[in-house]
Each structure stands twice: as structure tokens, then as C-alpha cells.
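Supplementary Methods, section 5.1.

A reviewer requested that the exact input to the structure prediction be made available. We therefore reproduce it here, unchanged from the version used in the analyses.
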Amino acid sequence: QVQLVESGGGLVQSGGSLRLSCTTSGFTLDHYAIGWFRRAPGKEREGVSCISSTDDRTYYEDSVKGRFTISVDHAENTVYLEMNNLKPEDTAVYYCGAPCPPWGWGAYWGQGTQVTVSS
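The structure derived from this sequence is encoded cell-by-cell as follows.
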């Protein structure tokens, strides 16, 4: 059974940092591009960042470039999203999912973790 479990969300002030973790089970990271999506209130779910399964190439949505960093620990089957210089517009529920754009769209999802950035 595939499980993706996120952690690390919370409330932070504008300019602050958070690190999200996604621990996977029943799932081989080498087989899928895996990454992070988010859904802000009143908006559609969007891809935020993704890391390729084959060569660790990364993708970032334009608004997070230079602020967010995705990484993967294959030994721990865990994907991370380091988020720095957070802005109120980053407020959303963040989901771990695989595959992810530009290499696909989620067939597997975590339950989501809330990130709230206060101004």
C-alpha cells in the first residue's frame, strides 16, 4: 500500500522559514518524479516543485524560485521542501505527490499539511 505522509507545516511570519517532509512507504522514489503541490484558498491545486526520479533534475514554479529548495533522501524514502523568505501568498495546504509537473501529475497523494504565513 502506497503512503505519502507530510509533516512540517505550521504558522510562520513573513520572511520566515519552514521545512516540509514527505515520508513514503510502499513506493519506490526511483520510479517517479516526486514533489510538492499546494492549494491556496479559492484556487486550484498547483505544482510547486518537483525532482526527477532519473537524474535529480528539479523544477520550481516561478513564484518560488530562489526561495524554495527540493531534495530527496533515497535511503530514507523522504522528500523535503525547504522554504525560505516565506510570503503571505505562500499560504496554502501543501501536498506531497507523484508524479509531478513537468513529468506528470499526481497519481499518489499525501493528506496535506497547512502552511500559514502571517504578514
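The chain has a mean pLDDT of 95. These observations are discussed further in the main text.
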